[in-house]
């Protein structure tokens, strides 16, 4: 793993101004956050700096104001939630640069926390304008990035600032980078990857990257149908990207050459209509899917075989559910395999790292998210990492 500085590399920070990029893009309802996981994630970094006597300025984006002030997208809307989670009062500052910020800093005592307004109110943020970044940097002594979820964007607050101030990874960023490195950067072998979800087209780059890096590629979800179709299986009415069968074959060839075993289901759960516990529900071999049926989950035999694969592996990286898990009983395979992975992790035989919006929801549904080694809540950034891309926000932190 490329080296980066952490809070351990900071000297005495008492009285210094810390600019901390956090993720405050909270889901809101009726003026308050419905989920504060992102604030909780950065709490150790914020409190560690404040308790060491730094003046902490929180910097974040909130929604998509597209470079202008937007009355309902001010970070002042999350001030109450952030304050409650941190258990500290925080001062809202209606700018990110200039004299207002300077004056606010002079009011803050050592250990106090300020919240800057939505950095995306200024077009220089998404344009990664160095002049804009310089204005923000002018008021601070050092920069801490604790927002992995925004690290796939080369914006002023995620990338530009790291070149203008001494830059450090926050505790949440450090934890995420360490976990991701254990999963794909420098993993214990054999490595298994589970890739599921709706479509091959959204995860082509992920599959291409993984076949060269893992020993077992487990394909489930709607995208498995495209791979089955590529192998000549009639998948009936299933969700299937028939125009991508050649691509699916190319991925399987590439896997062959790389010594990666691709696992496709040989039994599946099908129904004629997509509804909870439909009357037409049945389990069959993949070669027995009728023209008016659709595959909505992988079957029990396939699930058991995959559990056996995981038992031979030391590392697992997982993105995408194996079936249409939001609707019963099409959550069965995902829940079962997630529980197997969690048990192996708890036994100490498997390092398990998972990510993706629906994947996190599925693991929570299975009740095992906390038993995985690491679950990333970063959507886009996690996928780009699985694609093997260098994330600009991470690259800028490396020394
Ligand atoms: P993530 O958000 O974790 O990256 P995706 O968005 O790629 O995952 O995919 C999740 C979606 O895939 C879920 O809404 C799920 O219902 C759907 N899905 C999984 N298997 C199937 C299937 N066999 N047929 C249709 N949809 C499926
Ligand atoms: Mg999704």
UniProtKB/TrEMBL annotation:
Reactions mediated catalytically: (2R)-3-phosphoglycerate + ATP = (2R)-3-phospho-glyceroyl phosphate + ADP
Pathway it works in: Carbohydrate degradation; glycolysis; pyruvate from D-glyceraldehyde 3-phosphate: step 2/5
List of residues binding ATP: 203, 326, 356-359
Binding site for substrate: 23-25, 38, 61-64, 120, 153
EC number: 2.7.2.3
Single GO MF annotation: ADP binding
InterPro entries tied to this protein: Phosphoglycerate_kinase, Phosphoglycerate_kinase_N, Phosphoglycerate_kinase_sf
Enzyme class name: transferase
GO annotation, biological process: gluconeogenesis; glycolytic process
Matching HAMAP family: Phosphoglyc_kinase (MF_00145)
The protein's assembly and partners: Monomer.
Protein name: Phosphoglycerate kinase
